[in-house]
Amino acid sequence: MLGSRDKHKPALTWLVLSSLFFYGWWNPAYLILIIFSIIINYGLGTILGNGNNLFIRKLTLWLGVLTNLGFLGYYKYSNFFIEQINLATELNYNFEYVILPLAISFFTFQQIAFLVDSYRHETKEYDFLQYCLFVTFFPQLIAGPIVHHKEMLPQFLLGERFKVNAKNIAIGLSIFSIGLFKKTVIADGIAPYSNLIFDSALSGDPITFLVAWGGALAYTIQLYFDFSGYSDMAIGLARMFGIILPLNFYSPYKALNISEFWRRWHITLSNFLRDYVYIALGGNRKGSLARYKNLFITMFLGGLWHGAGWNFAIWGALHGFYLMTNLAWINYTKSWSIPIPEFLKKLTAWGLTFIAVVIGWVFFRATSFDAAITILQGMIGMNGVSIPNGILVRLPFLQEIFVTLGFTAHLGGGASFMYTWIWIIVIFPLVLILPTTQDLFYKVSGSLNKKHYENSATFWPFHSKFNFIYWQENKFWAVLISFALVSGLLTLSQVSEFLYFQF
Amino acid sequence: MCSISLILLISVASFNYLINPFSIIDYDRIDGVNVIKSQSSHRIGTIKKYQPIYFQPKTIIVGNSRVEMGLEPQHGNFGLYQPVYNLGVPGPAVRGQLAYAQNVVDNSPIKSIILSLDYRDFLDEQRNEDSKLLPLELNEFSDKFSALLSLDSLQASIITILNQKSSLPNRLDNGFNPANEYRDILRLEGQDALFEHQLKLLNNKLKGKHYDSTKILREISVLDNKLTEWLSNDIEVMLFINPYHQDYYQTLENHELLDSFNLWRELIRTRFSNKLKFCDFTSLGIEKSQDMLKDNELKYFWEPTHYKKELGDIMIPMILNGCNSQVD
Fold first, then answer.
1. Are A258 and A356 in contact (CB under 8 A)?
2. Rg of the Cα trace of chain A?
3. pLDDT (tens digit, 9 = 90+) per residue, B146-165?
4. I want to staple A246 with a disulfide (CB 3.0 to 4.6 A). Which of A250, A444, A448, B70 is the partner?
5. What residue in A sits closest to B9 (Cα-Cα)?
6. What is the 3-state secondary structure (H, E, C) of B253-288?
C-alpha cells in the first residue's frame, strides 16, 4: 500500500497514524511534542546503537536522559515548583499554567529505557517506523504498560503479527472484555462512595472510624480495579493486533510483604525503577546502608513520578520507608523461629502489608495533606465510631450492643454508608480469592510473563479450588465473556476516566 | 460470542423498556410491575424533560423540589386549569427552571404557568454573564438510548420491580413528588433528626454566599424577559415566593443574609406584582411554622426548607386568585 519492500509495512504505517490520531484527539498541539520526542530519541538511540566511541556514547546517553527529564520536568513539575517558591518567599511569580501533556510520563520513561538499553547494546533500532510504533502503539501509549524496545521489536518484525487472526481476536477481545468489566462496572461503581468520603474530608468534616475505613477501602478497591481493568484492556487491545504486551498487574493485594506488592503492582514501572534508578544509584552494591538509602530514594522518585504534589511525595517516601523496614525485618529475623502456625503467620504478614498499602493510598487519593490526615485520624478512631442514624433505627436488635461498645449515631449518609460497605464486603473477598486475567490466559500467552497461579509470598485463600481454571475457546467462556462485555458496553453512556491517565 | 452479546443487549433493552424505571418511554404503568417508580430521583432532570410532553398539560407548576413536593396538581381548585403538571425539578437555579418550562411551552398547549421563586436560586452561581436564556438540551435519541441500554437503567429496573410498596419514593405521572422518602425518615428517625440534618446541609450551602446585587438584578431581568414573552403569547402567569419554616429565616439571619432576602423580595414585588398574579408567602411560612401538631410532627413542614402538601393546599387557591401583596 505504501510502496514498502516489507509486506507488513502498510500495517505498521496505519497503526502509527491511527495511534497518533488517537493521541492528537485529546489536544492536537501536543502531537508536535510527541513527534519531536520520537525524532530526538530515535536519533540519539541510533548514535548509541551504532557508535563505538565510549565518550561520545556516554555523552549522548546523558544528553538523551537529561533532555527527556527536562521535558518531563517542565511539563509535570514547573507549576508545582513555582507554587512552592511563591509560598516559601511570599512572592507572586506569574507563570503561565502548564498543561500536562497526556502520557508524557509513560513515553518519557519508555524512551529513557530505550536509550539506556541502546547504550548497553541490549537493543538496536534501524527502522524509524518501527520506533514510532514502539512509542505510540495506542493500547499502551496513554497509561502503560511501559514496554521495552527489546520486547516489542521482535514482535514488530514478525509480519504475521499484523494479519487478522481469529484466535488473537478471540483472546484479545476476551481479555479486553474482562478489563472493561473491571473498570466500568466495579471501579466506576464504587468510585462515587470513596469520592463522597474523601470530598467530605477535604471540606473539613470530621470522619468517624467506620466511615473513614469505608472511604479508604472503597478507594483501595476502586484503584485496584481501575488500574487492573486498564491493564487488561491495553493487553487485550494489543493482542487483537497480534502484539503481546508485558504483564503490568498481578493481584498485588494478595502480597505477604511490601516487596512482593511492588512485584505485582504496576510491574513495568517497578521494573523501570529497579533497573534504571535503583541499580543506577548503586543498588545493593555499596553496602547495606547505601541499599536502604537507594531504596528510599527510588520510591520517593517513584512517588513524584505519579504527580507533582506533596501527597505523592509522601506516598513515595512512605513506600520507601516500608521497603526499608521490610528489608531490615528480613535481615534481623533470618534466624528467628517463631512457633506459631503458618496460616497465622501468613495472615499477620498479609494484614500488615495490606494496612500499610491502604494507608499509602489515603495520601495517594486525598487532594490535600489535611484531608489525608483527617481520614487517617478517623481510621485510628480519633473521631469515635458512629453509624448513620437511619441504619441504627432499622437495626433495633443491635442498638444495645452498639451503645455498649460506645458507638454513636450520626444524621444523614445512611444509604451511601450502606452501599460503601456492601461493595467492600462483596468485592474484596473476590480480590483475594479469584484468579487474575494473567492466570486465566496463561495457556494462550496472555502476556509476555510466564507467571500463573503463583502463590509464593501471597495470601490466597482457596488457591487449590481455582488453580486449574484456564480460558478456553468454548461456549461457557463465550457466555461469561459476553456477560462482561455487555455489562461494560452498558456503561458507555456514562462519563468515566482512568485514574492512571492523570500520571 | 457476538450472538450471545447481541441477545444479552436485546434482553436488557426489552426489560428496561417494559419496566421503564425513569418514565422516559411513554406508556402506562403496570400494576405490580412499575406503578411505584422508586428510582425516579436518579434521573429526575431527564424525566421532567419528557414526561410533561407525554402528559400534554394546560397548566404547569414551575420551580424546584419545594413545589415538586408541596403543590398537588390534583388539587380541587385547579378545575378548569386541568390537566396540571408539576414541573418542579430539584437542582436547577432560575434559568434552568425557566428552560424546563419553555421546553413544555414549546411542546404542549400551555395556557397557564404557576412559577415559584426561591431566594437561594438567585444566589447560586450563574455561569452566563449575559441575560440570555439557553434552551434545554433535548437529546432524545441519547436519553432514550441510555434509558434502554445502560447498566444504571438495568439496576433501576430490577430495584423497581422488586420494590412496589406504596410507601417507597415515587414520582407520579403528573410530576408530583409524594415525599415518601421524607415520610420514611419521619417514621423511623423522627422530625427532629430530619430538621437537624437539613439545617446542617442548609448551613453548608449558605456558607460563603453573599448578596450580589448585579447578579441578582441580571437574573431578575432574565426572569422578566421570559415572563413578558409568555404573557405576550397569551399565557397566564402566576408568580409566588415560597414559604419557609422560621428556622430557615433564622439560618439566613445567622449568615447575615436576612436583610438581603427582604431586599430581594421587595425587588420581586415591585417588578412583578402589577403585571401578573403575585403572592409572597414568606409570612405564611412564619405563621404556619408555629403549628406543631399531633404525633410530634409539624403539619405544614417536612423540614425548614420543604413545605408539605397541606400548606400547598392552602396556597393554591391564593395563587390562582392572586394576592398582589404579602400574605398574612
1. yes
2. 24
3. 888 989 899 999 999 998 88
4. A448
5. A486
6. HHCCCHHHHHHHHHHHHHHHCCCCEEEECHHHHHHH
Touching check for A206 and chain B: CB below 8 Å?
Answer: no
A481 interface with B at CB cutoff 8 Å? yes
Contact B9 A487 (CB under 8 A): no
A-B contacts (CB, under 8 Å)? 55
Inform me whether the pLDDT recorded for B228 exceeds 60: yes
Residue from A199, A419, A490, A492 whose CB has the most chain B CBs within 10 Å, to mutate: A490
Query: Which positions in chain B touch A482 (Cβ < 8 Å)?
Result: 1, 4-5, 8
How confident is the model at residue B58, as a pLDDT? 95
- A493 vs B146: CB contact, 8 Å cut-off? yes
Higher-pLDDT residue of A92, A353 = A353
Q: Round to whole Å and give the CA distance between A351 and A261.
A: 12
Query: Which strand (E) or helix (H) includes residue B116?
Result: strand B112-117
Helix A128-136 vs helix A104-119: crossing angle, to nearest 10: 140
Rounded CA separation B165/B151 (Å): 23
| DSSP β-ladder status, B301-303 and B306-307 | antiparallel
- Cell 438584578, residue located: B217
- From chain A residues 125-184, the ones with a CB under 8 A of any chain B CB are 170, 173, 184
Please report which confidence band the pLDDT of residue A3 belongs to, taking 50, 70 and 90 as the band edges: very low
Active site annotation includes A306: yes
> How much is the pLDDT for B64?
93
Taking contacts as CB-CB distances below 8 angstroms, the residues of chain A near B188 are 390, 393-394
Query: What percent of chain A has pLDDT above 90?
Result: 50
A262-317, pLDDT tens digit by residue?
999 999 999 999 988 999 888 888 888 899 999 999 999 999 888 888 889 999 99
Q: Work out the average pLDDT over B167-187.
A: 89
Q: Which of B1, B193, B200 sits opposite A481 (nearest CB)?
A: B1
pLDDT number for residue A2: 39
A422 touches chain B (CB under 8 A): no
When pLDDT is cut at 50, 70 and 90, the band that residue B41 belongs to is confident
Whether omega for the bond prior to residue B83 falls within 30 degrees of 0, making it cis, is yes
Sign for the CA dihedral angle at A25, A29, A33, A38 comes to positive
- The model's confidence at residue B295, banded by pLDDT at 50, 70 and 90, is low
- Residues in chain B closer than 8 A to A489 (CB atoms): 5, 9, 149
| Whether the Cβ atoms of residue A450 and residue A244 lie closer than 8 Å to each other | no
A328/A10 Cα distance (integer angstroms): 55
- Asked if residue A476 has pLDDT above 80, the reply is yes
- pTM higher than 0.90: no
DSSP for A350-411, written as a single string = HHHHHHHHHHHHHHHH-SSHHHHHHHHHHHTTTT--EEEHHHHTT-HHHHHHHHHTT-EEES
Residue A12: count of CB within 10 angstroms of its CB: 21
**B82, B58 in Cβ contact below 8 A?**
yes
* B278 burial type by CB count under 10 A (0-12 exposed, 13-18 middle, 19+ buried): buried
Distance in angstroms (rounded) separating the CA atoms of residues A480 and A483: 5
Q: A61 with A115: CB under 8 angstroms?
A: yes
Q: What is the CA radius of gyration of chain B?
A: 20
∠ CA(A292), CA(A297), CA(A302), 5° rounding? 125
